[in-house]
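3.2 Worked example (two chains)
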Amino acid sequence: MIDVMLRIVADGFVVIIFLIAAYSFIVKIPKQMWKYWAIRIVLAGITSYLFAKLIAYFYQPETLRPFEKLGVDAGAAYLNNPGFPSDHALFAMFLTLAVWFSTRHKALSVILLSLTLLMGAARVLALVHTPTDVIGGCLIAIVGCVWYGHMPEKVVKLYKRGEKNE
């Protein structure tokens, strides 16, 4: 039973995080701001992903995943690579930051951050990642996304005008 719960948290939470992020984008961002944020979110995602692949090319702290070292079965889904950085952690943190930057909705952002941290811990407990893999994925997402979080004053005015029209 614990194995099933661990697999649900380690693998399934990324789907829940995605669904909450999609809801946030559709419901919390004024329609006239969708294009603006869609472009920024896609660019932040591409930047984070490319940055992660570049770092992984030059730096791999481990060549084997924890379950391989221990000679046991993996407790969650994984790609056949050394594991640094965690793609799950990268994607989940990227979505968390995209929701925060685009909506500034504290409750949704805290929920997403909590789910991201739980998912990362579950992936470590499932032996598919080391803590370094998960932390690396989160940090790379932060670096990849932070450039897209600043809103120019002109955009802030449009955003506030959109809130008044709702």
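3.2.1 Second chain
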Amino acid sequence: MSDPRRPADCLRRLILAAAILTAGVAPLSAQVGTPAAPQATVLRMTEAGTPPASVIYIGNSFFYYNNGISNLVAQMLTAGAPKQALRSTLVGIGGSGLDWHDVESYFRPNAIGRYSIGSDNIVSFNPPANPLFDVAVMVDCSQCPVHPDLKDIFIKYAKRHAETVRQHGARPVFFMSWAYADKPEMTDQLAEAYTRAGNDNDALVIPAGLAFSRVVKQHPTIQLYAADKRHPSLAGSYLAAAVIYMTLFDRDPVGLSYTAGLDPETAGALQAAARDTVHDYLRH
């Protein structure tokens, strides 16, 4: 028998309605929300065979710690789908919220994404693309979505940036960040805030914060945090990347050979937590 006081049971009770799709956005399917979020629409990214080929990550140090979330996701995709091309770019401002970013400027021609530096340290120029990016993954500052003086700004700029991204032919995606190590109550607060933002803007939400909570409960010996109890350790960044990998590309991270230098047992536990969290949140 379910207990309405338990977050997991609250999560299961919220079945969300099908999406009203924005013009130019690929068909997506309905999903489940978070403990306190109202019934609305949270979306799934891909149809079969249509994963994104280009991604821009827009955020802060949560994204650029440990050599960058974009690099970790790209390495996972290389291991899991070596024939699938991916061009990714990270725009990070330390300590930033969504209101610090001029997202319109990130889509100007012949600027961001114009060239890449490969693993051989050779510069290659990317052919012009329209849209410039298929997906924009955005994260606010670690407290902004739930801070009493900043949460309205989060709502405002989530809407503004989602509209800007769509105007440039890309799909907006929100990255649900995690609770501080010593403030676990932030998990449900952030989950609700990001799910509401996804619902209100017909945008996919990547449930990284829920994956952090799962690992803390199931594998307390795995250290997901840096010493400041806020930023991710390598294991934390790897977990977040695995959640992105499954959410954006609809690929199971379990069994990936790429471990970012983590021991296989730890990497396997993080891969499984990412898979299970996405399954629960997106109702695969």
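3.3 Remarks
The first strand starts at residue 54 and ends at 59.
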